[in-house]
Design brief:
This protein has helices spanning about 1-10, 50, 65-75, 90-105; strands at about 20, 30-35, 35-40, 60, 85. The N and C termini lie far apart (about 35 Å). The protein has about 110 residues and is an alpha+beta fold.
Length: about 110
């Protein structure tokens, strides 16, 4: 059960591109690491419906990872950040790399 897993987690569940969940996932978090303010953007692979049972993900849908990251970046635009990190798995990983190239991040 997704809700129970979220409750039991000792870490934030981030996803800028998951839709249809209540409460929604935070799209990102901002942390100061060694005096440097950075954002971590969560990206979920849109391939989940290909391997997950429909009854496990009722009402959930996923934006294209690039669209989710773009939306998060629009919110973060006014933040005084020194770095942005977005990472995904599977096919979405390649899209994250494309975004990093496009926005000049690593």
């Amino acid at each position: 059960n997704l809700a129970l897993a979220r409750e039991a987690a000792r870490f934030p569940w981030l996803s800028a591109n998951t839709q249809g969940i209540t409460p929604p996932f935070a799209p990102f978090l901002v942390k100061t690491v060694a005096g440097v303010k950075v954002a971590v953007i969560g990206v979920t692979t849109a391939a989940i419906p290909q391997w997950e049972k429909p009854e496990q993900i009722p009402g959930l849908s996923w934006l294209d990872p690039v669209e989710g990251v773009r939306k998060a970046l629009a919110v973060l635009e006014s933040a005084d950040l020194r770095g942005i990190f977005a990472r995904a798995i599977d096919a979405a990983a390649r899209r994250s790399a494309e975004l990093a190239d496009q926005f000049g991040t690593d």
